Give the backbone structure.
Amino acid sequence: MTSGMFPNVRFGVHTGLQHTSYDVLQPLWQRIEELGFDWISIWDHFYGATGKPDDAACYEAVAMHTALATATKKVRVGSLVYSVGYRHPAVLAKMITAIDHISGGRADLGLGAGWAVVEYDAYGIPFPGVKTRMDQLEESIQCVRGLLHDDVTDFDGEWFSMKGARNEPRPVQRRLPIWVGGGGEKRTLNIAARYADGWNVPFVSPEAFAHKSAVLTEHCVRVGRDPKSVKRTVNVGIAWTEESLRAQFGMLADGVRPGVLTGSDAEVIDRIGQYVAAGAEQINLALRAPFDRDALERFSATLDLT
């Protein structure tokens, strides 16, 4: 459901999986849906997002993506974003296809190059340099796109290869949306322009979002693609007070501050308007435990989502 104030914009909630439980997440997801949000997503980490080597309380993403699909009935169920270093793209495509069936055709798939070196190191997963990870992302998204969108996929890359690969049963959706997450202007946005249905970037100001969106448009034009065919979204924090900001993000609070909605109702509405003016078609509230449900209730009421 769209807001009466912003009729062309959809709103979602991105739920972190660290330091929480399914008994907390399930009713949270259901309440988010009741409040009129259009989208709920999960992240893909094995450790918490603080980067500390002893911060390991975090659920696995595919299992919780599936749980999200079963707990809801109407919202899009997405991932922002699966790291290409954790799962072979064919395995991931099969997983997402199953989630699409479980959800009745509501699944979205987000992909990224990965960054949380602490969990790669802890589990012995190779963490190559950024160029290699971007190369892997570019190959992986082509493999996944073929398996989700085409009947048969052939691909011969440096990191992945497929020969007459099929993904059956087919997804419920004829074209299951594929997202790219990240703000890298040379590679990430170029990959999004070539292969993605949507692009997402977290915790940037409206001005930074506008700049990166313009770069994405340039890449689209360069590869001969209609820029409007790539949906543009941003993840932002919601913290009505400074205390809430600190409680949610701790030592990361100052780093994410440019991308946090805060202040009075009017100030939050004005900030959303700035993102919309910058080209955002969907705005997701990025939450982590302890989840501030009162903030969600207030946001929904302020924007009249229900």
Residues 10-303 form a domain with the TIM Barrel fold (CATH 3.20.20.30). The CA atoms of residues 77 and 280 lie 19 Å apart. DSSP finds eleven helices and twelve strands in the chain.
